[in-house]
Structure formats: structure tokens, C-alpha cells
Design brief:
The complex is a heterodimer.
Chain A: E1 2-11, E2 23-28, E3 41-47, H1 55-68, H2 78-95, H3 103-111, E4 114-115, E5 117-124, E6 132-139, E7 143-148, E8 151-156, E9 171-172, E10 185-191, E11 197-201, H4 203-214, H5 219-225, H6 228-240, E12 249-257
Antiparallel strand pairs in A: 1-12, 2-3, 3-5, 4-9, 5-6, 6-10, 7-8, 7-11, 11-12
Chain B: E1 13-20, E2 28-29, E3 32-36, H1 37-56, E4 66-75, E5 81-85, E6 96-98, H2 99-105, E7 107-116, E8 122-131, H3 143-160, E9 168-173, H4 183-191, E10 193-194, E11 197-198, E12 200-205, E13 214-215, H5 229-234, H6 241-249, E14 261-263, H7 267-281
Parallel strand pairs in B: 1-4, 1-9, 9-12, 12-14
Antiparallel strand pairs in B: 2-3, 4-5, 4-6, 7-8, 10-11, 13-14
């Protein structure tokens, strides 16, 4: 089995410019995932909290860090997560122009930026059986879905549209303001199956997907049918109909396919 | 579902402050002889505008998620209403600025404050405090004239923003209109509506009486025996359900049916009271 990146769509909140989009995502997918125990796909999605300052920068730093500086999800502890966050936090601190901040930005910058983080790795099973395993880490309401056998097989970390509220767990760039972040950390893992659709989405779209699924629809079919040109129009329509909240919106879809199905092309997120 | 409109540049929220600057506001707040009502009013408005500005700040710039107006009212020496606006470039007919214009209009003062040094001690540092409203108090209380002015401005704003979260009107007064019965005019304001619900009219009542402070009552029997308290209660909107949910989450003593009315709340409670509405409308995650 291997992975075929299928969709990477994003759209800022209506009324905001593209450079004000405060979600972030990175997809890094090696040519051969899982072979000889090497080759790990790393996918990260983050949703910067607009109420905090320099949230876009923080969301980008977190997603870059997740794909570029591997975090050992199998041995994750509160300490190892904080050590891993150390350089990300330093990087954020370094990108704030502290000596040029206007009065309204001072206290907010001191408080730090806040963002969700959803990180997913897909690689060889630890037992070297040749199977593919996924492992996910989530802080907040950016969600991972796995569609298997044409039904929603996994919804992580939230499982119900009613669970989305305005107070998700968040990763803070200022360790003094991070609260008990570890309490908000969720982890899950499992085996991939050929034909799996792996979907990552920030909250507005994730909430829609769960609501549609609960209503007996197959929302992944709608998402798979969209091409890049149709995506913007479709999201704007859902926002107008109030089916999707007006918020920065991000969608990543990856297919798990049998090797025989693979006609390799470079992954979009690949360096 | 009402009171659920998202707040964006295309669909901004709206705050309109109505500030009583009559002579009686020079008096001390009940139970706090060192604090004049006009100082409490100005400080509360400055603090809440600071909070709204910061909420819209992205660090270097501010997103125009809100329009803000400040209407002040007093009379001249012969009792004629003097209804003005406090933000530069505005008028009673057009009292609103975008929040980025509000930010630009602030006079920023440096103040020394004591903050934790992180090691159990306090350290004095300079912090910037924005000021928009200076305390002043003289002559009569033409509350009816102020409410009429607000009603017209809100009507015009709603015509321009029919799908926005309903405007929030926040009055800071010691009651006692000198130009008639303000209740019908307040009801008129509360009847204005966007597609997302009715205008929310909140009242912060500052009194010289040393009665127990009252916050967010749901029944008229809960207000103190102040001659204006029952009237102010009737002029106050019930909090919409999403606000109740948020306030309960913040640990505030609010239930379904509670009204946006506080009586002689101290400064902390007053700012907290003003903060509820803004939070419900501006969760910009």
C-alpha cells in the first residue's frame, strides 16, 4: 500500500484577504511510504486563533515543525512535547517585531499566539509486517477522518458536530500562558487499509462533515467531486446557506491505495 | 437561529455607548466615596474599547470587525439637550467609526503599573493606556433626546448592515431623565432588528445610594428600591441564549431571563458586564 495525495484546498474567511488566512497545512509524502521501515508521510493542519496576535505565523511554524522536525508520536510525553515546542516557540518569538508593536498589539503579543494542531504520520507498522499504520496527535478541533468501506470509520478528536464550540484546546506560543496543554492533547492510532480516504479539516468544514454524516449523507463524495476551481465557489455557497461557518477553511485528502494502483507523480507538498 | 451571525468585515458588529454626562454624574458612587460616577463611566468605556480594539488586533494591525459609536448627553445651562459624539469625525447623525479608526483616535497615555515579576514579587513597569472618553459632568439629563438620536443612528446602521449581529447599546447613567419618560424610546430601540435578532439594550446604572449592587436580574422584584432602578430594568434587554451560555461558562451569575442591567456594580463588575456582550459577538476563533 502507499499514499496518493488527492486534495489540498484552502480558503480564507469571507471578507478577509488571502494573506489573512490563519489556518496552515503541510503535506510531506515520500515516494515510498513504509518501505523497509523508512519513508514516513507527515501531514499537519493548524488553525490559528484570530483573537490572538501573530496567529498565522504560529500556525505556519507549528505545521512546518511537525513535518520538518519529527516528533516521536509513539513515545510522546508531556516533556517531549514541550521540548519539541521549544524551538517553535523561539521561532515565533523571533518573528514578532517587539520594538515596533502598536499599543493594541503589545498585550496580545505578550500573551502569545494560539493555534490548534493536528499532526498525522503514516508509515510502516512497528512490527515490520509491511502494513501501514497511522498515528495522530490533536490539540483542539482540527479533525482527522478516515472513510473506509464507504462509511465514516474514524472521526478524531471530535465525533459530533455539537462538540464544536468556541473554546477548543490550543497550543500557545508563550509557555507561561499555555495552561495545562497536556490535558487537551488527544492521540489515536491504527492500521491503514487499501481504499481508505484520509481527510484532515479545520473546524468549520469538519463540523459540516460530521453534521452531514449524521444526517445520513456521504459528505466525502461531495468533497472528492470538487476540483480546485469549484472549491471556492462551493464553500462560499455553503457559507451563504449557513451550512458552513464563515471561517478560514482547510481540506486535505489522501487516499491509501494498493501499490498496483499507483501511478506515481510527485506529491504536491513534497520538497 | 438569532444572535448567531458571524462577525466579519463584510458583516461587522456594532457597539453604541450612551454616556450620561449630567451634573449628577459628578457625585460619588454609592459605597465608594472616593470614586465619582463620571470617572467610573469614562474608565469603563475606555477599558471596554481597549478590550474590543485588542480583540480585533492581529498584532500590527486591526481588522474592522466592529463599528463603534459614543454618544454623550447633557444640557446647556437653560436645560436644552446637548447630545454629542465623543469620537472624532462623528456626529449624532453618523456616530460610528470602524474599530481601526477608533484605534487611531485613541490618546495613548503611559501609566506605571505593578505587575508580577514571575518570582513572587512585583515590578513597576510602564504600560500604554488608550483613552477616548474624558470624565465630565454638568447640568441636566436629556436621556430621551439621547435615545432618540441613538434610535435614528441605529436604524440607519441596520439599513446598511441588515444581516449583521444586532447592535449592542450600552448606556452608562445614574438614571433620572430630565426630558420625559425614556422607557418607550428604549423599547423602540429594542424593537429595531437585523435578520439576526433585535437590538440589545444594556444598562449600567450608577447610583449614589448605598444599596447592595445588583447584577443581571431576571425579575423587577430583584432591583433595589432606587426610584429609577425599576425603570432602568424595564429598559434593559434579556440576554440572548448564546450570551447566557457564554456568561454561565465564565462563571457569571446569569440565568435564562437575566437582563443586561447592573446596579452600582463596582468597576470590575461593570467592565465584566460590558464584556459579556462583546465576547458573545466577537468570538473570532
Amino acid at each position: 500500500m502507499t499514499l496518493r495525495p488527492r486534495t489540498e484546498f484552502w480558503l480564507p474567511k469571507a471578507g478577509n484577504d488571502p494573506e489573512e488566512y490563519e489556518d496552515a497545512f503541510r503535506v510531506v509524502c515520500p515516494q515510498r511510504v513504509g518501505e523497509s521501515g523508512s519513508g514516513v508521510a507527515r501531514i499537519a493542519v493548524s488553525d490559528g486563533a484570530s483573537e490572538s496576535a501573530f496567529a498565522r505565523e504560529w500556525a505556519n511554524i507549528l505545521t512546518d515543525a511537525f513535518v520538518d522536525r519529527p516528533l516521536d508520536l509513539y513515545g510522546l510525553t508531556e516533556d517531549s512535547l514541550n521540548v519539541w515546542l521549544l524551538s517553535a516557540r523561539e521561532q515565533w518569538h523571533g518573528c514578532v517585531p517587539w520594538d515596533r508593536l502598536p499599543w493594541h498589539g503589545e498585550a496580545k503579543a505578550r500573551a502569545g499566539a494560539f493555534a490548534t494542531l493536528l499532526g498525522l504520520t503514516i508509515g510502516a507498522a512497528p512490527d515490520r509486517s509491511g502494513r501501514l499504520y497511522w498515528k495522530a496527535l490533536a490539540v483542539g478541533d482540527s479533525c482527522l477522518f478516515i472513510v473506509r468501506d464507504d462509511r465514516l470509520w474514524l472521526s478524531f478528536p471530535l465525533e459530533d458536530a455539537a462538540q464544536f464550540d468556541n473554546t477548543p484546546a490550543l497550543v500557545c506560543s508563550n509557555p507561561d500562558n499555555a495552561g495545562d496543554m497536556w490535558k487537551g492533547v488527544r492521540q489515536d492510532s491504527g492500521e491503514c487499509a487499501a481504499g481508505d480516504l484520509v481527510i484532515l479539516a479545520t473546524d468549520a468544514l469538519a463540523c459540516w462533515l460530521l453534521a452531514q454524516n449524521a444526517a445520513g449523507e456521504k459528505p466525502w463524495e461531495t468533497l472528492l467531486a470538487l476540483d480546485a476551481a469549484e472549491w471556492d465557489v462551493w464553500i462560499e455557497e455553503q457559507r451563504r446557506e449557513r451550512l458552513i461557518r464563515n471561517d478560514d477553511t482547510t481540506l486535505v485528502i489522501i487516499e491509501v491505495v494498493q501499490d498496483s494502483e499507483v501511478k506515481r507523480e510527485p506529491c504536491p507538498g513534497q520538497a | 437561529m438569532p444572535y448567531a451571525a458571524d462577525i466579519s468585515r463584510n458583516n461587522p458588529g456594532c457597539f453604541l455607548f450612551l454616556i450620561d454626562q449630567s451634573g449628577s454624574m459628578y457625585g460619588a458612587l454609592g459605597g465608594q466615596p472616593e470614586l465619582r460616577k463620571m470617572d467610573a463611566a469614562a474608565d469603563a468605556v475606555n477599558r471596554i474599547l481597549d478590550a474590543i480594539s485588542q480583540r480585533c488586533s492581529q498584532g500590527m494591525d486591526v481588522r474592522d470587525y466592529f463599528h463603534v459609536g459614543i454618544i454623550t448627553y447633557t444640557t446647556d445651562s437653560v436645560g436644552s439637550p446637548d447630545v454629542q459624539t465623543a469620537l472624532p469625525g462623528t456626529s449624532p447623525k453618523e456616530p460610528f467609526l470602524t474599530i481601526s479608526q477608533v484605534v487611531d483616535a485613541a490618546t495613548v497615555e503611559d501609566r506605571q503599573v505593578k505587575e508580577s515579576d514571575g518570582a513572587g514579587g512585583l515590578v513597576e513597569i510602564t504600560r500604554k493606556f488608550p483613552v477616548w472618553l474624558q470624565p465630565t459632568a454638568s447640568y441636566g439629563t436629556p436621556m430621551c433626546a439621547a435615545l432618540s438620536t441613538a434610535s435614528e443612528a441605529l436604524h440607519d446602521w441596520i439599513v446598511d448592515h441588515p444581516s449583521s449581529y444586532p447592535p449592542m447599546v450600552i448606556s452608562v447613567t445614574d438614571g433620572g431623565a430630565t426630558d420625559g419618560n425614556p422607557v418607550p424610546l428604549a423599547k423602540e430601540i429594542m424593537a429595531l432588528e437585523t435578520n439576526d435578532g433585535n437590538v440589545l439594550n444594556y444598562n449600567a446604572h450608577l447610583s449614589e445610594m448605598s444599596a447592595m449592587p445588583v447584577q443581571y436580574p431576571s425579575d423587577e422584584s430583584e432591583v433595589p428600591p432606587d426610584e429609577y432602578a425599576a425603570q432602568m430594568f424595564r429598559m434593559s434587554s434579556e440576554f440572548p441564549n448564546p450570551v447566557v451560555d457564554l456568561a454561565v461558562g465564565m462563571g457569571l451569575p446569569i440565568t435564562k431571563g437575566s437582563r443586561g442591567y447592573v446596579y452600582n456594580a463596582d468597576m470590575v463588575a461593570l467592565v465584566q458586564f460590558l464584556d459579556i456582550g462583546t465576547r458573545a459577538a466577537s468570538d473570532l476563533h
